[in-house]
Amino acid sequence: MQAVPLNTPFASEPEPTHHTNQAGSASVRSDSFMSSAGPSALWAYSRDFFERSILFWDTLRERADNLIEHERRGLPPLLDFQFETILDARHFDRPVNYVLMRIVPENASAGKLTDTQRPPVLILDPRAGHGPGIGGFKRDSEVGIALAEGYPVYFVSFFPQPCHGQTLADVLHALRRFVQAVASRHPGQAPVLYGNCQAGWAVTLLSADCSGLVGPAVLNGSPLSYWSGEAGVNPMRLAAGFNGGAWLTHLVADLSDGRLDGAWLVQNFENLKPEAQWEKYAQLFTNIDRERERFLAFETWWGSFFFLSREEILAIVENLFIGDQLENGRFRICEHCFADLRRIRNPLVIFASYGDNITPPHQALGWIPLVYKNTQELIEAGQRIVYLTNPHVGHLGLFVSGKVAQREHRAILTSMPEIERLRPGLYEMKIEEAEASDSRQNQPYSVQFEPRQVEELKFPKPHPAFRRISEISETTEGLYRTFFSPFVQAASNPLTAEAAKWLHPMRMSRYLFSPAFSPWLSGLPTLAKSLRGSRTALSDDNPYIEAERTFMNLVGALIERARINRDAVLEKTFDTFYGSGSRDLMPDHPVFQDHSTTEVQSPERSACSSAAACRCHGQRPSISI
């Protein structure tokens, strides 16, 4: 979620030569303000400010009630479509809290191809603290666009609580069974995998494991190169250096009775750009009449927090966030299984945005020149990789924005047959406005695939300090696991874990606005309802509402400046502790240019030597990635 660009005189330093003109303009604006800011305008603004204040607080009250009701209902997926359950992984031999659902079309999709003529689309939502449904919580979404194009759509959802002791290997086994189930329901049509954010690396692992079983894989804002990024732009990659490694994650999971509360992950997201949070509430207050419904719909998803098991989150943090093992071929799934991206043979479509400060293009594309040293190696591997970038949309916009769904996601789905026919190589997908006589398939755009060279992918190079942090993390995690974790686990129990859940600041800051927690707010709905029925919104040309918006923008600019300074201090502190660890090389160096020192697992080594060799699940062999 990105803050709206601020257009205030304080957003940039003015040129000295323009001081006189600016002073003259300010004088004109001041005279205009004084001439129109009469008593009637002030009275109208005062009335409107009072009404908006009541409606604003009532919206926060309704958000709290919605979240509590959603919690009481068991936090079901927030899909705006009917669905039926196909497989519930909680009943597998190694249970996990995942479920495979089929999205039920509302009609026969008149004018569209039948289900048997299109491959099924399997959409995976990320487990990054929130609940499932972001890929289909409104009509203009990935689910909605896929249905509109006539595709059979399946959705991988999950439950709020992980099964006891579930591991990352258990989850990947369950996802593989889901893929097999979908494929069996559509013979001859390999499923298209759609992975959002953190579900993207799961899709890549499935692509490596299910070679020949799956069709093209679409990765939306999905990080695979976790150390990549730019100094001052992507501070999240520095977090492990300040936390001392994975031990803190282990501690928090131990305190919650073997689970990690997703509220901690969402809190990290909000801290990345605090000005975006200010902008969200400022927009709601200023435009309460038109923003209320959209705010409530989004907040029901954003404020519903799901848990991950201790074993899952530690495997993710150690192997991906800190270890960055996936692109290096050293991601150990289980005792005898390693992930190897070179085993992927189905086409990959990578969608990233330069406005995404959580998963920038560096992290979405930086793995390619490490896995494939040059274009010829990619071609010889028989692989097709297509990427497209958006210049400005934020992270959530990649899979939430209706405009992105109507343009980029529709273009991806309508171009699937052409993507599968591409020759091996690297391509950039270009979406351009189509002329009326040149529009394909009655779409308002044309799609082209322009060949690119792996050598052209040039991103700032991560510093070896990240490797040192990984080594520090292994040491601190080993010390905590051996000497402290047993005592913390002994002191934790379901009662303390439940208290920690409800007392978490991310929940308390929302739930306290409900009359269930604050009885003195019981009269707020009645007052708000009476105001909403008789309210007339203030005219936009009122000088006081213009001054209010200017003030809101000014506060947002100050918060943004404070955040930029904070990130700069973090970068400097990181440099001090780890020896210029965050200073990247010049952008004219390809990412991981020196491949000779990097050992990538061979496909033979990364596969299990035999079914009996993998003992992580007893009689059942693990996936051979």
List segments where confidence is low: pLDDT < 50 over at least 5 consecutive residues.
1-26, 108-114, 581-625
Radius of gyration: 26 Å
Please count the beta strands (DSSP E, at least 2 residues each): 14
Strand content: 5-15%
Outline? globular
N-end to C-end Cα span: 34 Å
Number of DSSP helices? Answer: 23
Helix/strand-derived category reads alpha/beta
For the sheet with most strands, the description reads: 10 strands, mixed
Summarize the structure in words.
Strands 1-2-4-3-5-6-11-12-13-14 form a ten-stranded mixed β-sheet, with helices on both faces. The protein has 625 residues and is of the alpha/beta class. It starts with 18 loop residues before the first helix and ends in a 19-residue tail after the last helix. It contains 23 helices and 14 strands. The protein is 46% helix and 12% strand.
Task: State the main characteristics.
625 residues; 14 strands; alpha/beta; two-stranded antiparallel sheet; single chain; ten-stranded mixed β-sheet; disordered C terminus
Q: Topology, pairings included?
A:
Layout: H1 19-36, H2 39-72, E1 83-88, E2 98-103, E3 121-124, H3 142-148, E4 153-158, H4 168-185, E5 192-196, H5 199-209, E6 217-220, H6 239-243, H7 247-255, E7 259-261, H8 262-272, H9 274-286, H10 288-302, E8 307-309, H11 310-322, E9 331-334, E10 337-339, E11 348-353, H12 361-365, H13 368-371, H14 375-380, E12 384-390, H15 397-400, H16 402-414, H17 416-421, E13 425-433, E14 445-452, H18 465-491, H19 494-502, H20 505-511, H21 524-534, H22 543-578, H23 603-606
Parallel strand pairs: 3-4, 3-5, 5-6, 6-11, 11-12, 12-13
Antiparallel strand pairs: 1-2, 2-4, 7-8, 9-10, 13-14
Helix pairs in contact: 2-10, 2-21, 4-5, 7-11, 7-18, 9-10, 9-22
